[in-house]
Design brief:
- It is an enzyme of class 1 (oxidoreductase).
- This protein folds into two domains: about 5-160 and about 295-349, Alpha-Beta Complex (Quinone Oxidoreductase, Chain A, domain 1); about 160-290, NAD(P)-binding Rossmann-like Domain (Rossmann fold), CATH 3.40.50.
- It has eleven helices and 17 strands.
- It has helices spanning about 45-50, 100, 150-155, 160-170, 190-200, 210-220, 230-235, 250-255, 280-285, 295-310, 325-330, and strands spanning about 5-10, 20-25, 30-40, 65-75, 85-90, 90-95, 115, 135-140, 145, 180, 200-205, 220-225, 240-245, 260-265, 290, 315-320, 340-345.
- Strands 3, 4, 5, 8, 9, 16 and 17 form a seven-stranded mixed beta sheet that branches.
- Helix 8 links the parallel strand 13 (about 240-245) and strand 14.
- The longest helix has 14 residues, at about 295-310.
Length: about 350
């Protein structure tokens, strides 16, 4: 039997989110029921609720930065018990049979992983995300939140944390490496923290110096304004790795010029429009340009354990459910430092 739970949903593209109820499925053999404590607001929630990334499904309950506690388990569950602290990230299932799933890279499932929201289960049912009091997921797609990270600052790690951890780990950020993080927002601030904890020399590249004090406090060694043309001259050929967290169309040739020979520019933000660059920006330094998409279940657990070990969590502003629409506008205006997190208990107020 399904269960009705309270949620906030966008009833149509660009419509304000409103309180409603959605149905959660009855527990299958390997399912767990999670009582959600906190859900982070990711900019991708806004893009999808406002249908800025193409056709979407409505009503939509966004939210893929979910932290809570196991409230019930299916009869075959072995990984979790009632009372365990758990999280859910950007996807809740994958085919488990393709080469990528078998290699432990479920985020690149060839059949298409099942998105936590604005997606469709393999049986055709729509998925609803974390702006709700409860969610049901297969135990194999839940993450254990270590003791030592409170659930509110852990929630954004399930997207923002892994989105930055994955490229930093893959491209070997660490001692002796010079890493630049483009943008100090919900993603970028976690990139600074994680790259610093990995032992890299970290530089923030931001439009202005407005957030310089924050950047240095979070672990950056240097902070430069990209609005100042001299930055590109001064830093030419400096970095082993640049991670671009923005969803703006940047002058890519300028950023590529900041890489050393064999350096890599990795994009984790997705602009609405295509970007252009000259191939000579790659050719002249044997440079690479790449993209990175969240991480696997294994790597996401690795990230959570790493954050617990180093005392890392997101910088957050906790809000109630009735503040979601205001929060969306503030995110678009870059008026948050650095992640809104919804107190899900407020949905029942």
């Amino acid at each position: 039997m399904t269960t009705s739970v309270t949620a906030y949903a966008a009833p149509a593209p660009k419509a304000p989110l409103e309180k409603t109820t959605v149905e959660r499925r009855a527990l299958r053999e390997h399912d767990i029921l999670i009582e959600i404590a906190y859900a982070g607001i990711c900019h991708s929630d806004i893009h999808q609720a406002r249908e800025e990334w193409g056709s979407a499904q409505f009503p939509m309950v966004p939210g893929h930065e979910i932290a809570g506690v196991v409230a019930e388990v299916g009869p075959g569950v072995t990984k979790y018990a009632v009372g365990d602290r758990v999280g859910v990230g950007c996807f809740v299932d994958s085919c488990r049979e393709c080469a990528n799933c078998l290699a432990g890279e479920e985020q690149f499932c060839l059949k298409g992983e099942v998105q936590t929201y604005n997606g469709t289960e393999y049986d055709g049912a729509p998925t609803y995300g974390g702006y709700s009091t409860h969610i049901v997921v297969d135990e194999n797609y839940a993450l254990r939140i270590p003791e030592g990270i409170s659930l509110d600052i852990a929630a954004p790690l399930l997207c923002a944390g892994i989105t930055l951890y994955s490229p930093l780990a893959h491209w070997n950020a660490g001692p002796g490496k010079k890493v630049a993080i483009v943008g100090l927002g919900g993603l970028g601030h976690m990139g600074v923290k994680i790259a610093h904890a990995m032992g890299a020399e970290v530089t923030v590249l931001s439009q202005t110096l407005r957030k310089k004090d924050d950047g240095l406090r979070l672990g950056a060694d240097h902070f430069y304004a990209t609005g100042d043309d001299s930055t590109f001259t001064e830093l030419a050929g400096t970095f082993d790795l640049i991670v671009n967290t923005t969803s703006a169309n940047l002058p890519l040739d300028g950023y590529l010029s900041l890489l050393k020979v064999d350096g890599t520019l990795v994009h984790v933000g997705a602009p609405e429009n295509p970007s252009a660059f000259s191939q000579f920006s790659l050719i002249m330094g044997r440079r690479s340009m790449a993209g990175s998409k969240i991480g696997s279940i294994r790597e996401t657990q690795e990230m959570l354990d790493f954050c617990a070990e180093h005392g890392l969590g997101a910088e957050i502003e906790v809000i109630n459910g009735d503040q979601i629409n205001e929060a969306y506008d503030r995110v678009v205006s870059s008026d948050v430092r650095y992640r809104f997190v919804i107190d899900i208990a407020s949905l029942n107020a």
